Amino acid sequence: MSDIRLVNVIKKYIIFLLSVLGFQSFGQSDCQNTIKYTSSTQNGVINWKQFPEFSLPFKIVYTGPRFKDSLQLPLKHGFSHLANFTTADMNLPQKNRAILWGGTASLRGQPWYEIESPWANDLQKYQEKWKRELREMAEIFMETQGKAMPNLDILMLDVEREIPTDAAIRFLKADTTLPIQYRKLSDIDFTERYKKDLAKIYAEPIKYLKNSGIPTITQFASYSDAPIKNVEFPLNYTWQEWQTSDKVLNYYMIDSVSKKVGGEFYNQNNFLAPSAYFCYEYGIIKEYPNIAYQLFQVEANMARSNKDIMLFEWLSYNKCQINSNYGYNQPIKKHLIEAQAIMPFFSGAKGIWLWENPINPDSLNYSRYETYVNSLYRLSQFKDFFTGNYRLIIPKSAYQHFQDRDPIWRGVLKGNEILIAAINEFANDNETTDLAVSYGGWSQKIQLNGKETFLCKFTLPDLQTNYLLYPNPNKGSFTFEYFGDNFLTGNLKIIDFLGREIYTQSFNGTTRKQAFDLKLASGSYFLNYVEGEKVVVKKMIIL
Fold this sequence. Notes:
Elements: H1 3-20, E1 29-30, E2 59-62, E3 81-82, E4 98-101, H2 111-114, H3 123-138, E5 154-157, H4 166-172, H5 180-183, H6 187-202, H7 204-211, E6 219-222, H8 239-244, H9 264-268, H10 280-283, H11 290-304, E7 310-314, H12 334-346, E8 351-355, H13 367-380, E9 391-393, H14 398-404, E10 408-414, E11 417-423, E12 432-439, E13 442-449, E14 454-459, E15 467-470, E16 477-482, E17 491-496, E18 501-506, E19 513-517, E20 523-531, E21 534-542
């Protein structure tokens, strides 16, 4: 190694050493600005053409108003699928088709629909209904007209025919229309039998679809039917319980033997589609953590399942309380529109289903869609962060943010760059919030404007961010991981604060991650990894 290159390596080592000792390292930022757009004041229009054409590496389904759109404009502005069609969509490519199958279980005279009972239903009548509705879907597209099944990329079921609580299930037992053999069961046996049989009938529609020859490429999910119960106040359970307990799960998403996430209906779903509509009753309360509630739906389900998450969103408020003053189609606030177009992807969502009420009167203003599209466009300028080899940085769970009611930030790490998204929905409109964000030895103070969603990327110091040491502090049990395309091939040493070598290990290029369980005295140490000219230093605290 030449003297100059040796000096450069030493300089890098010193910089990293200073970093882990507590000095801040600031990277250059890139906050590509949104374009200037004008919110439509005219009712019954969406001005798509004021935005550049762009795409995103996610599945984002558009169910909103089309207003005689013959150019499939949503597909040119961030959306990947249409679920609301015009006559111009008869030859829409199959990869861009999605349908929400409303009222999947709705059939008059059937106990599943009338009283949410899984017993004494006529499945043949249900199958006749499903056959009829699928033929109607097939008529939408030119190549399947007159056929039994549509060619779709996504078919989203909307079932919503289950009794959610044990108390309500036991109340059903008093219904004299139930078969007598079930009414004779004890309360405990009745409740368990109901859950088991309800899970079975929930699986019937997709079973019918597969047996009837729907194209194998079609992906299935069911609206709001995810493992995690959807609650507006998740603090009734601890975050540990949300991650591990069966108490927090929807029973029709549980395997009857293992009592863990699973079962026939769960397995039929190619991905999960939890709902995260904002409640009107809580949206008007400044203290309610709307964004934390929404991100919780993503993070809690990801903690229980490895299936992709497509989050259901709506640009209007939902009515969550029976006696509320909710007004039909009340638009959510602008900062919520911006945040829900950006933040869910930073918590791990792989898609969004943007729902809209099927009735779209021209008398309403739809400029909120322009706000949403503008937010998607902002995100599109950083879309490469979400392709290839990247890592989500979630420093604090959405559950904890819900409890603390504080600003939220998330990051996406790729190479030596990090993309930061942040929001303080509790700020006043003209207020600024200083927020410290950090990763490894890097930290940065950012400034949030009012309730706006912050979105900027930063260049990080070389190497350090690609090598992770966690947990830290620890009690001697920790993991050292390289986050990149290659494997560990260097030498790792642990050095105490006096410079004495405590431990050493060489890597042979067969792993990116190594776990350690060492007996080390409490105190401060340095983990030193050298690979050619690479020098990585991590400060480690042993408790």
